[in-house]
Amino acid sequence: MTANHVLVVDDFVENTQILEAFLGAKGYRVSCASNGQEALDKVVAEPPDIILLDLMMPGINGFEVCNCLKQAPGTRHIPVIIVTGLHEREANIQALEAGADDFIVKPFDALLLDARIRNSLRTKALQDQIIQYQKRLETQNEELEQRVRERTAQLIRTRQVTVFSLAKLAESRDTETGAHLERIRSYARAIATELARGGQYGETLSPAFIEEIYHSSPLHDIGKVGIPDGILLKPGALTPDEFDFMKTHTLIGGDTLRAADIEAGRESFLAMGRDIAYFHHERWDGGGYPRGLKGTDIPLAARIVAVSDVYDALSSKRPYKEAFSHEKSKGIIIEGRGTAFDPAVVDAFLACEEDVLKTQCRLQDSGVGHVYKAAVRTGIAQPKP
Questions:
Q1: 245-293 pLDDT tens trace
Q2: Which residue of 12, 38, 79, 144 pairs with 33 in a disulfide if CB–CB is 3.0 to 4.6 A?
């Protein structure tokens, strides 16, 4: 077992020699310092288990040494016993206020000093155990937090992949839509980001909301898996009955995602996707479907996706139409401001027009690259770097 290390600090050599001989005979390993600065340097070089400290020394006195040690996190746990010739009550009080753990008056009683040292060392040993235990806990907590972060990231990614895979399942029914889902979610994020800058919807449009709408918006048409091919892929106009049946995709999709929430026993990560699936065909003036909601009764995410979806449908080739130009598509969106669409969402769409065009170019289906190129020629967008 390693002997405890005692640092004796006293400017009188005779005193250090007496203490060194006494402590050495008790089995302690002793080092000495003749002034305050030397003591501090030795503590830094090799922290002792306990310090016997004189008060009255030239330069840095014992009060200052003790205060310095007790203020530093790395040395505050080292016991300091004041060994002093001062009998003044005020000096002893000042020493205790400086952080001293105990004090003994010279000439010291050998038995008393030995008992004080052993008691202080026992206390320090307990403190050291507590410190080591805390360090182990901190290490374990850090490792656990890292595992939790990794697991959380994995779960989030799995969730995102699950959502997009569900959406792709519905999209696979319609081979003409190409990169529709990728564009929709990019448009929705750009619009939501622009809305957040305006501050109109306050804390609702948080970074978490913007991230969520990006990953949930592809679920808007998941209900189309329940629409027969004869209606879904019909190249011409739908009959009134066919259109009424097509409208049911909002209920099919919303009900499917709502069932998942119920199965989970609470609102799951599909909650925003559920609202989008139900209500992205509602109109600001109340003339939409499936429930005829009006204004802000329509969930904000659905109002954002409504503009994104209509713009993409207009500017993309579909079985029943050719792709409209950006200007024509934008004009139709503007015409719907305050009737079909939330005015604030339309304004945000117009404010992020360049981002919309860049997305359309980056994720274009065949034949729509001209939209971005034309926008560059007219000055609406900047050329890609």
A1: 999 999 998 998 888 777 766 666 788 989 999 999 999 999 999 999 9
A2: 38
> In sequence order, what are the residues at sequence separation of 6 or more whose Cβ sits closer than 8 angstroms to the Cβ of residue 178?
316, 365, 366
- If you classify domain 5-138 with CATH, what class do you get? alpha beta
Taking the C-alpha atoms of residue 171 and residue 175, their distance in angstroms, rounded to an integer, is 7
| Burial annotation 35-68 (CB, 10 A radius, 16+ → b, else e) | bbebbbebbeeeebbbbbbbbebeebbbbbbbbb
Asked if residue 49 lies in contact with residue 77, where contact means CB atoms within 8 angstroms, the answer is: no
Q: What topology does CATH give the domain 172-378? A: Hypothetical protein af1432 (1.10.3210)
Domain extent listing, the chain:
5-138, 172-378
Provide the whole-model pTM.
Answer: 0.59
Under 8 Å between Cβ of 381 and 362: no
Q: Where are the beta strands (DSSP E) in 93-228?
A: 102-105
Amino acid at 123: T
